Fold:
Amino acid sequence: MKKRFRRLKFLLALSLFSATIFPFAIAFGQMSKHRYITIHARQYAYDPPIIRANIGDTLHIRLVSKDVTHGFYLEGHDIDAEIEPENPVFRVRNPSQGYNWRSTSEIVINLQKSGKFRYRCSHTCGFLHPFMQGELVVSPNYPYWVGVILAFGVAFWLLWQASPKEEVKSDDDRSES
Amino acid sequence: MTTEVKVEAQKVDLFDKFKGLKWMVKLRSFQFLAILPNLVLFYIFILAGIFGSPIGNANIIIIFVWILWWFLLISVMVPFVGRLWCLMCPLPAFGDWLQRLTLIGVRPGKTVGLNNKLFGLNKRWPKALSNIWLQNIGFLTLATISILLVTRPIVSAVVLGGMALLATVMALIWRGRAFCLYLCPVSGFLGLYSMTSMMELRSKDKEICRKVCKTKSCRAGSDRGWACPWLVYMGNLDRNNFCGLCMECVKSCPHDNITLYWRPFCSDKVIKGYDEAWKAFIMLVLAMAYSVVLLGPWGFLKDWANISEKGDVVGFIIYAATLWFICLLGFPAIYYIAVKLGHWWAKAKKQNGAVSVKDMFIRYSYTLVPLGLLAWVAFSLPLIMVNGSYILSVLSDPLGRGWNLFGTAHITWTPVYPEYATYIQIALLLVGLYYGIQKGLEIARELWRDEEAAFRSMVPVTVLLVVVTIAFMKLFAG
Structure:
């Protein structure tokens, strides 16, 4: 019979269990909210750079440009806006429906998907335009936590496979010696 | 069965499997035909960089070099075919042709102990610089101004044009591809990451090279092929790092003893010196730095790096100093602590015949190679998914002048499912982590020759790899 590190197995199971339930426990305790955010765009960043929200929240987003015309393309949510400087009214469209722009002063989004979604500039605004982006993080961030769990899992599994194995003598072997 | 025996058993002889492939690489015109289209494109890009739109996404040099070529290089070419880019790279082309005074043919003769007639001074490169430290510093220098390099067409044109000029001048002074071997920043990381690639050019039987072959034509040249421009002797070649896949040795070998193999991922595992270890550190840290500065949401970092537009000199100094410190000192110090802890714990098990800290430090740095490569692929992926549509528009309007050569200039920016990039990035990082740990454990067993000591030595390094992986995941997905 071969004996492996029992503690290692226990630690692995405990880590995986904890890592699995923790983010869900946190998210379960949060109630859906209406969040009102004004995003300021300038060359080459958004303020706030990161928006954190929970699944089920409703975001009310106002967009303001501080310098030149910028875009606001929110990936995964079919939203693209064009913001002119110092103008609280901006154009917005749904990319899946082509270029039917409509004017508005607020975008309302109900967050149905968790994860990280970047908002990017979609209107060439200068040299660093392709790198102008912010992040919307919707909790519980399943992809990230699954990735973390799997990273631990890969490491534990490989170490487990490589861990030295002790030969445990059977009762017959012990009595002979 | 040892790891090496397993790898050997899994290799596929591509020349044997595909006879046409061997015929093709043996053609004298093979490398010329591979280089020519890239050379034409290269000079079109240089002209576009100088005379075209200053806005990056409207200029073909930025889109084709830093979006398309970079993505293909790091994500497709390196993992699968290693240094194949070096076969077709336009930068050293004029240097090669001036050294040889021919585009395709071979000139037998005698020059500095080689069996070819070579033009130029053919000096030996200084021994003290026969390492990749210059490439490390060169890449770090370019990385420091990378935000300018990848967004300003004129900067790209000047840097790339300058590299081509330097390669040409160096070819007239030093023998072989001195620029590629010792200076080219791209060559530096291609060499390191080609260790993971699934293709290799090797001699079929090294005993034939060492004991039967009298001419060593691979290294010295012959009337059938040029002396290896990478200064490689096939009888000793056991890693991809310094083979540029030019296939001259395939042509010149009098014993038909050279072939192309398909092999498992990460088959080369031996890091040979501090210069290569530091290349692994620098590349991993830069993958993180690029992900933070270019793909991150923090505007102040972009402002600091964007020195020519924002003019924040103090910010640029902080950014550059931090980058260089972490690459050259900070991360290596953290890695050293992990290695030292592993060494201490392993030595407690195996006092006699303990591996030295130095050997562990150098050899275990390979664990950062697959993780670093996959981190770079994960960084490059959003670039192509988000900005790939620019490829079509600049194809028709390469200079951003309002042309429409192929009718695609009207195609607007259209990201392709960017919201799914994080899933692919996580998967890539996990693959990198897996191979980093697995190869580390193999190296540990080779060095320690004791199962428990090897295991103990790798635990702290594994922890470090996991921390690094999660840090990347936090950036990309968290």
